[in-house]
Every structure is written in C-alpha cells, then in structure tokens.
Specification:
The complex is a heterodimer of chains A (about 375) and B (about 300). Chain A is of the alpha/beta class and about 375 residues long. Chain A has two domains: about 5-40 and about 180-370, no CATH class; about 50-175, abc type-2 transporter like domain (abc type-2 transporter like fold), CATH 3.40.1710.10. Helix content of chain A is about 70%, strand content about 5%. Chain A is built from 16 helices and four strands. Chain A has helices spanning about 5-20, 20-40, 60-70, 85-90, 105-110, 125-155, 165-175, 180-190, 195-210, 210-215, 225-250, 260-285, 290-305, 320-325, 330-345, 345-370, and strands at about 50-55, 75-80, 100, 120. Chain A has a four-stranded mixed beta sheet, with helices on both faces. In chain A, strand 1, helix 3 (about 60-70) and strand 2 (about 75-80) form a beta-alpha-beta unit. In chain A, helix 2 (about 20-40) runs antiparallel to helix 8 (about 180-190) and helix 9 (about 195-210) packs antiparallel against helix 11. The longest helix of chain A is centred in the middle third of the chain and has 30 residues, at about 125-155. The two termini of chain A are about 25 Å apart. In chain A, about 35% of the residues are buried. The radius of gyration of chain B is 23 Å and the shape is globular. In chain B, a hairpin with a 2-residue loop joins strand 9 and strand 10. Chain B folds into two domains: about 5-220, Rossmann fold (3-Layer(aba) Sandwich), CATH 3.40.50; about 230-295, Alpha-Beta Plaits, CATH 3.30.70. The longest helix of chain B is centred in the middle third of the chain and has 16 residues, at about 170-185. In chain B, strands 6-7-8-3-9-10 form a six-stranded mixed beta sheet, with helices on both faces. In chain B, strands 2-1-4-5 form a four-stranded antiparallel beta sheet, with helices on one face. In chain B, strands 12-13-11-14 form a four-stranded antiparallel beta sheet, with helices on both faces. With about 300 residues, chain B is α/β, with parallel strands linked by helices. Chain B contains ten helices and 14 strands. The two termini of chain B are about 30 Å apart. Classes of the chains: A alpha/beta (about 375), B alpha/beta (about 300).
Chain lengths: ~375, ~300
C-alpha cells in the first residue's frame, strides 16, 4: 500500500468533484434536494378529502354527526345527496373521494347502545385518500359516539370510567400527519446518501470513457490503492452531506435528534464506506457511465427503497428478500438513523449494525479488487 | 536475434475473441533504437505496444523487455516504461502542472527532484506559459506534448508511443519529432507507431505491420531499396484511362495512384519514361507532368502490401 498513490488519486478525485459541475451537483446538492422532494411526496399529509353524505336518518343526531366528521382539516363535506346514484356520479367524476351513508335508524341505534351502522364507499382508484377517509371517519365516529354515550351515561348515572379504555385508545391513534414525516426522514437519509455511491460507480467508467484508464493501468499504482483512492474522497464529501442533512431534518422537518451526534457521524462514515464499496463493485464491471448509472439504480437505489425496511417492514418480506436486505448497507443504516434520531440509542445497541456495515464494506472492496484487472480487456 | 537485445519478441501471438491481432511476431530491438511501427489501421500496432506496456495478456510466445518477462512480470515493467496512449488520456479538469504532479506521484518521482523535473519538462515541451491552464483548454498539439511530458517524468529507459502525432498540425508534429530525436540522442529506447511515412523516415529502424504480421523490419534506406527499379510520376488529364493504357506496357511493374497522379514502378526510368509519355499521347491523353523520382518508403510499403494480398 502506498499512501502517496492513494493520496494522489484522492486529491485528483476531489479536484474533479469540485470542478465538474455534474459531479458536484450529484454528490453535494442532490441528496438534500431529493430528501426534500421525497419527504414531501411520500409523507404528504392527506387533507381536505371531499366527501359526499347521504343521510337517511335526518335527525338532529345525524346532522351533528355530519358536522362532526367534516369539522377538521382532513375531511370536507362536498355535498349532501339524496340517492346512491348521485354518489356514484360524483365518485366517477372524481368530485368526491368517499361517501358516507347514514342508515335510517342511526340515532335510535346509537342511543339504545345497539352499535351504529355506517356505510363508507371509497374511490378504489385512489386507495390512499379512500383508506385515509375510512380511517378518519372511523375515528370521528368513535369519538362522536363516545361523547353522545357519555352524556347518556351521565344522565343514567353510570360511572364514566367504564368508557376510558375506548377513549384512550382513540386518543392514542388520533395523531395524523406528524408521525409519518418524523418516521420517514431518518429512513430517507439512508436512501439519499446512495447518490455518492452512484457517483463512485461512475468514476471508473469515466476513466474508461476518457481513456485515462489506460494511463492509470500502465502506471505502477496498485489496484487497491486506486480503488481506495477513489472511495475516500466520496466518503469525505458524503460526510459533508451527513452533517448537512440532519441539520436540515431537524430545522426544517422538526425531526427530533435524540442521540449523540459524534456517534452518528462515525456510524455514517462506516455506512458510506459500505455503500461506496458497493458502488465500486458496479464500477468495476461497467465500462460506460450510462451502463454504470443504470446498474446502480438497479442495485443501489431500488433495493434501497424496497428492501431496507424503510417503507416495507423487513419481517413481512419473503425469506430471500430478508436475506438480501441483510447485505444491503441501507438496511443497517436505516436502523441506525432511526435509532439515533428518534430513540437516542447509541453504540451499545447499534454495534451489530456497525460491525455488519464494516463486513459488507470490506467484502465489496475485496470483490472489486479481485475483479479489477490492471489490464485492458 | 541476439541475447543482449533490449527487447526480444519471440513468436508472439495475441488473439481476441474473433480476431488474431498479432500472429507469430518475432522481433528484437536494441537499446537506444528509435523504432518506428507503421502499417494501416487494424494492423496490430496498438496491440503490440500495449503488450509491451504490460496492458494486454500474451496469448502465445514470449516477450522480454528491459529484462522483464512480460508473461510473468507485466506489473514489474511498468515503472520502467513511459507509455503514451493513442487517444488523449490525461485529466481535462486538471491543469498542466496538476497532471504532471499526479503522474509524478504515481511513478514515485523523488519529491525533492519533482519540482525541478516538472519545470524542465515544461520548458522542454514549450508549455511553461500554459502550466496553469486546464488540459481541456490546450490545443491538440499541446495536449500531445503534455502527454509526452508526463511519460518522461520518471525518466524511463523505454518509451512506447502510440500514434503520438495523429491529428496534430504539421508544425506541432515537427516540434514533437524534434523532442523525440533529442530523447533518442540521449539514449532512450523509443518505439513509436505512426501512419506518416515522413515520420517513419526519421526512425533508425522501421517495422511494417499488416494484418497482424510483421511484414518487414529494416532501416528506411534498405526498405526504399527493396523497390527493384525506378519510379516514374505522371499526371494526366484522365488518370483512370491512363492507368489502363500504361498497365500492359513493357517494363511497367506496378502502378499506384495518388489522387490524380500515377506512380509507376518501371525497370528503368531513363528508357521507359519516353515510351510511357508517347503511349499516352497516342491515346490523346494530355500529359501535365512526367518525371522520374526516387522511390519513397510509401511506395515500397504499398508494393509490399500488394504482394501480400496477391499471395493471400
């Protein structure tokens, strides 16, 4: 190992990053911008879902109920209708995303403790808003029923405490909006930090395309020095991102940061090493930048979305996917970011993930070195 | 072939997937030679240079260069050669000096000497006033000179240059060759491939490659003398018609076309020139120019390649 060679490549690569506009943007600007975009598209708070209501009961209670479910920012009363046919029209034309049908015996059933019968029809083509509407109507209905019944019980002299369990449960769940963002942002950090990895995959291909590779291969540099010299600068700029992004997450998205910042930086460096080594493996096999780009989307970005447990729980995956997720640096880093941000856990809990990242990184570096030949094809 | 030769190539064959790029090449080059490799595109010049640089694996045969067996020690020879690839292969985003410093590091040039050597090479290549310019913004000729300068940083005893002057203007070409001549005089062994015959003329020895084979290898003078006979150059109003008229005449061995001009190889220039012009006039062809000339390497090579094609 020659530190002179390593440093020569690192220095040259840093000069390139800061002088090549495309690389600069990809490495230093894109992660933050993509974090912003993804947070807003994925964690967007569904609001003002238009509702149609068909009230067969026409009682003071049912009118109070309608007012109640549409009082918040989440559901809007678009129209009160007189027939199912009208509901169908509105759904088809997209004027409403959901409709509530209140049965004729609504107030009678409610007051006689029979349980209420509510029908909700949703636009199946937009399951997100539909599901959201069902969920929120359910909460509101439960709260409404509890209130009415509490009044009723009070009149009849039944102690209120017997209602507490239901009430608490509803309260605990009734926290729409804020939770997803807080939950999502730390996970997304592990995805957006994949961009430096993508650039690493491109850097070898770039040398091939500009035939500078020939000049490197003919020089006495050892291949491990060359590969490491290409990874180190991207770890360094990756760490710039690692410092920038939490500040952004904390100040902009109001995500709490419970853990130790230095531990976070250290673990992030290990993650970058693993992720960039993975990018390097791609770079070793792909001789053109476009092929390397396509491949890194396939191997780094997509699994980052689907297999690292950020959006879909790993426990729910088939065994093969679970196994694969174990070897993705993002899986471990998502655990780390969530832990450090949200629960404030440190190395005492996260060390197995750190060790795993080190193993993955070393393995990928060895694979790249093994398949990178100091010869032309 | 002598044992003491600087480079010994014995029955070297290199095969690619669908193609034999080099076939049974045997060649030895002495220390201090300025050896020119000529031949049409695809003849195998680049493959041969890349093998000598340790960049390509040898399919069969043996290559020993500067004391290194390239079958076994392709990495070990690398510190001792300067290799210049055909395409511009320096970092466009780096300045002239930064490129030189990068390669000085890779070739472990002594840190104390580094600054000195870079200054010397900059003035040697005439790049001193451009030293802070990005490589991307240099002219083609300056890029080639910079590339050459980077190969000289570690003062290698063996220089391998792959078409270093292709795509360069004539003045830069001449400057480049003056540098090469200086290096040659200082004792550096140089192997250079070139498509230009005037450049081949400046080499101490020339090897002609064709379809993966080394057709001939000799000094420029000897190669020119291979042409048995004299050369007559004729320019007429219609070269195609002239070609058909002259080809069957007695004493005409070969006709090569150079644009409008015909270069005709005859057994004796003195006796044949009047006969040829007379024949043309009989066919009502206006003769713009007709004279004897001494054969150049170009005619010799084309003649050799034609003979090879006839054999095949």
């Amino acid at each position: 190992m020659s530190f002179r060679h390593l440093w020569a490549v690192t220095r040259k690569e840093i000069q390139h990053i800061f002088r090549d506009r495309a690389t600069f943007i990809l490495v230093l600007i894109t992660p933050t911008v993509v974090l912003l975009l993804m947070t807003y598209t994925l964690a967007v708070n569904i609001e003002h879902v238009p509702l149609a209501v068909l009230d067969y009961d026409q009682s003071p209670t049912s009118r109070a109920f309608i007012q109640r479910i549409t009082a918040g920012e989440d559901l809007d009363l678009y129209s009160q209708v007189d027939s199912i046919a009208e509901i169908e029209d509105m759904l088809i034309q997209g004027q409403v995303k959901a409709a509530v049908i209140i049965s004729p015996g609504f107030s009678r059933d409610l007051l006689s403790l029979q349980g209420i019968d509510l029908q909700v029809i949703i636009d199946g083509t937009e399951p997100e808003s539909g599901g959201f509407a069902v969920e929120h109507i359910g909460w509101r209905a439960e709260a409404f029923a509890n209130e009415i019944l509490a009044d009723q019980f009070q009149i009849q002299g039944i102690p209120l405490e017997s209602l507490q369990p239901i009430d608490l449960r509803v309260q605990a769940w009734f926290n729409p909006g804020l939770k997803p963002i807080i939950d999502l942002v730390p996970g997304l950090i592990s995805i957006v930090l994949g961009f430096p990895a993508l650039t690493v995959a491109l850097t070898l291909a770039r040398e091939h395309e500009h035939s500078t590779m020939e000049q490197l291969l003919v020089s006495p540099i050892k291949r491990t020095d060359l590969l490491l010299g290409k990874i180190v600068p991207y770890i360094l700029v990756g760490l710039l991102n690692v410092m920038l992004i939490p500040i952004f997450a904390i100040l902009w998205f109001r995500v709490p940061f419970q853990g130790n910042f230095l531990v976070f930086i250290a673990l992030s460096a290990i993650f970058l090493f693993a992720e960039l080594s993975m990018g390097m493996v791609i770079g070793v096999f792909m001789k053109s930048q476009s092929a390397a780009l396509a491949m890194s989307f396939l191997v780094v970005m997509f699994p980052g979305f689907f297999l690292t447990g950020i959006f879909f729980p790993i426990t729910a995956m088939p065994e093969i996917a679970r196994l694969e997720s174990l070897f993705l640096p993002g899986t471990h880093y998502a655990i780390i970011t969530r832990g450090v941000f949200l629960t404030g856990i440190g190395l005492e809990t996260l060390w197995p993930n750190a060790v795993m990242l080190l193993i993955i990184g070393t393995a990928f570096i060895l694979i790249s070195a093994l398949f990178f030949k100091k010869r032309l094809a | 072939m002598t044992e003491s030769a600087f480079i010994n190539i014995t029955e070297l064959t290199r095969e690619f997937k669908n193609k034999t790029a080099l076939e049974q090449i045997t060649l030895s080059i002495q220390e201090g030679e300025l050896f020119g490799l000529v031949g049409p595109d695809g003849a195998g010049k680049t493959t041969l240079l890349r093998i000598l640089a340790g960049l390509l694996q040898i399919t069969a045969g043996q290559v020993v260069a500067a004391g290194y067996d390239l079958n076994k020690e392709p990495e070990e020879i690398k510190p001792h050669i300067g290799y210049m690839a055909q395409e511009f292969s320096l970092y466009e985003k780096l300045s002239v000096v930064e490129n030189l410093m990068f390669f000085a590091d890779l070739y472990n040039v002594d840190v104390k000497e580094q600054e000195d050597r870079i200054q010397k090479l900059l003035s040697f290549a005439g790049l001193t006033e451009f030293k802070n310019r990005r490589a991307a913004h240099l002219s083609g000729g300056m890029q080639k000179k910079l590339a050459l300068a980077t190969t000289l940083l570690h003062e290698p005893p063996l220089l391998l240059l792959d078409e270093p002057t292709t795509g360069v203007d004539p003045i830069s070409r001449r400057e480049f060759w003056n540098i090469l001549t200086d290096l040659h005089l200082n004792g550096t062994t140089i192997i250079v491939s070139t498509p230009y015959m005037d450049e081949a003329d400046r080499c101490s020895r020339v090897g002609l490659m064709y379809q993966g084979e080394l057709v001939i290898c000799d000094s420029p003078v000897n190669i020119r003398n291979l042409l048995d006979g004299d050369l007559v150059k004729i320019t007429t109003s219609d070269w195609q018609e002239a070609h058909t008229v002259l080809a069957p005449l007695a004493g005409v061995k070969e006709i090569q076309t150079y644009g409008e001009a015909l270069h005709i190889l005859v057994d004796s220039g003195k006796t044949r020139l009047p006969q040829l012009t007379r024949a043309l006039k009989e066919h009502n062809l206006a003769v713009d120019e007709a004279r004897t000339a001494s054969p150049r390497m170009e005619e010799a090579f084309i003649s050799l390649i034609r003979k090879m094609d006839q054999v095949n």
